[in-house]
Amino acid sequence: MKRIDECRVCGNTEIKEFLDLGDQPLANSLLDSPYNNDPEYPLSLSWCPGCNLVQLNHTADPEELFSEYVWVTGTSKTAHDHAANFYKEVVKRVPNIQEGYVLEAASNDGTFLKPFVDKGIWVLGVDPAKNIVDMAVKAGIDSECAFFGQEAVEKIVKEKGKAKVVFARNVVPHVANLHDFIKGMASAVGEDGLIIIEAHYAKIILEELHYDSIYHEHLCYFTLKSMEALLNQYGMHVVDITTSPISGGSLVYYIKKNGNDANKENENPIVQRYRDEEQSTKLNEWESWQDFAKKTFEHKNALLKILDQAKGSVVGYGASARSSTMLNFCRITTKQLPVIADKNPLKNKKYTAGTHIPILDPKEVMKSNPDYVFILAWNFTREIMNYLNKDLGYKGRFIIPLPNSPKIIDSGE
Ligand SMILES: [Zn+2]
Fold it and tell me: How many angstroms is it from 220 CA to the middle of ligand 1?
């Protein structure tokens, strides 16, 4: 794993470290056996005094991280609802969309291309995880197995021409070869094309203490300011912003090429409101991130206290990548949490990285009728509580670790 010596966006060499989460395993590398050894790598964050990007200090090998990805978008109902809304937002903005095609970078199982396919719009997904591309193709969503970037785009454009729309959801923050990826997005569409980037918003990470969203895959933590610092280098300009419920709070940036004054006039006033708000809330400032680091350690102590004092049995729910950071940072093992329930069949009968907690199907886990369910995938709290209460008849209590302070709530609250 390589330590960076300059900012991932602007190249500033004076980046300053503010949080060390210790050595951690790769979040998505679940184990087949609890006796397997899993290597651990440094997980720490820096802030850039130039563009104010918050970023990981180390970069893992993308081949190791993404070739057998276990996160399948379509397993979450929230993702399906968001995909339907996303489709509406896109067609509203691109009236002649039928004349071309829609390209998605890191398309996963094609959940977000599906609504386009259903309306007869030509699509292409590009994703590096072979097992998941196969799933998408089987479901009738045209997809290719490749790392998205200049090279992949050149090949696609040669075959199919420029896309009307190119979008990348929750992937730009994960890309080690960031500049190649962004250049690829720019050259995938024509001059009138629409580029859409969805990324977890650093403002929410800061305000709601989403330190669990920090893991090796997630290299950059963007604000509008740092996103613009990146896009402007390639003549791209943010013209509108909407919000997304994914990851507990993300921004969707609508981007046009040639960020000249003409485009500035087309900018939705909401973009300037975001810039102003970032300034007034000190989002891009060094002191704010130092404070975040302090609160992260306080959260760890509070969470361990809750688990210590919980009377009766506790099980976990949702072996997400995010849960890995929290479990490893807090050193929560099978002593406090003997099992984790997860609906994703790809995770069934595996073990969490670093903490070696077994993962089983929720129906099996809930047979023991535990006193507490610790919702690790807390950004899907409502959905999970509904499922456990209504479908599985669970009446016990829940431990909700985030946002902010951990808390215990009763069923039906
Ligand atoms: Zn920078």
Answer: 11
